[in-house]
Amino acid sequence: MTSLIATARVSSKGQITVPIQLRHEMGLHTGSLVTFIREDDGTLSILSSTLAALRYAQQSCAGAAQEKHIRRHEDLNRLIRHVRHRDSHSLAGTVRISLPPHVSLQHPGSTLRIMADTSVLLAAIFLPCPETQETLRICSGDPHILVISHASILEALTVVQATWPRCLPALQLFLTYADYECAPTPQGIPRIRVRHLPQRPNAAKTYITAINSRTSILLSYTRDFANLHPPHLTVMSPRTFVHRYGGSATSESPLRHPGKPFHR
């Protein structure tokens, strides 16, 4: 059953004003990208570019995880570690990949900067579930910023190139059209005033990037960041993030208070 939410008038310049109710539901803010999709039955859908790109990537990569007997997040994490070990000399190893062009959008007045690591990025596409969909909707919605480190992007591209070459264009399309900020990753592991660092070098780089980019929350499906409590950074899984805060992660949320332990 179709419900009519609101109507809008097209201006002489072909512009419309998206009703505020729809902007809130879709997580749209100033500078947001939207995608128009023509469905098979002729229906025209309007989605935020992040969710539209995610849906396309999920459809293009459907069944790929099962082909490699990857059914749980733990299976996907083992695959990521395997590729890291094989390509230990560099993030890309012998795989030569060009990063897709992406313009980082500036969101004025944002309250939360939320970083997704490689495990979350790949799980959203290859192990789709409501929690990852809701996580990306919240992270890229007004007034928050989804942050992905350069290292996580390159590592995700490397894993997909090595495991599912046919899915590489879908991942590149998602990285091109999704609404996020690409945070630069240091080449080495600099000395910073943090008591402990993750043992794995790639995890340490993600951790340092999160701190340097002033990230509020680091989302991960791994245990690489367990028992680390840096100031101004909270580490948790998407499952915990959605369970605790759902669509109410606003400036009044307890997420502003650092020091929460990692929970599965």
As laid out across the biggest beta sheet, the strand order is 5-4-3-6-7
Q: What is the beta-strand fraction?
A: 5-15%
Shape: globular
First and last CA, distance: 37 Å
Q: Give helix % range.
A: 25-40%
Number of helical elements: 10
Please outline the major beta sheet: 5 strands, parallel
Show unreliable segments.
Answer: 88-100, 102-109, 247-264
* SSE string, helices as H and strands as E: HEEHHHEHHEHHEHEEH
Number of strands: 7
The Rg value, from CA coordinates, equals 19 Å
Rounded mean pLDDT is: 77
Structural class: alpha/beta
Structural overview:
- This protein has helices spanning 20-26, 49-60, 64-67, 73-86, 118-126, 130-139, 150-163, 168-177, 201-212, 238-245, and strands spanning 34-38, 44-48, 113-116, 145-149, 181-183, 217-219, 234-236.
- With 264 residues, it is α/β, with parallel strands linked by helices.
- The strands form two sheets. A five-stranded parallel β-sheet has the order 5-4-3-6-7. Strands 1-2 form a two-stranded antiparallel sheet.
Features:
264 residues, five-stranded parallel sheet, two-stranded antiparallel sheet, 38% helix, disordered C terminus
SSE layout and pairings?
Layout: H1 20-26, E1 34-38, E2 44-48, H2 49-60, H3 64-67, H4 73-86, E3 113-116, H5 118-126, H6 130-139, E4 145-149, H7 150-163, H8 168-177, E5 181-183, H9 201-212, E6 217-219, E7 234-236, H10 238-245
Parallel strand pairs: 3-4, 3-6, 4-5, 6-7
Antiparallel strand pairs: 1-2
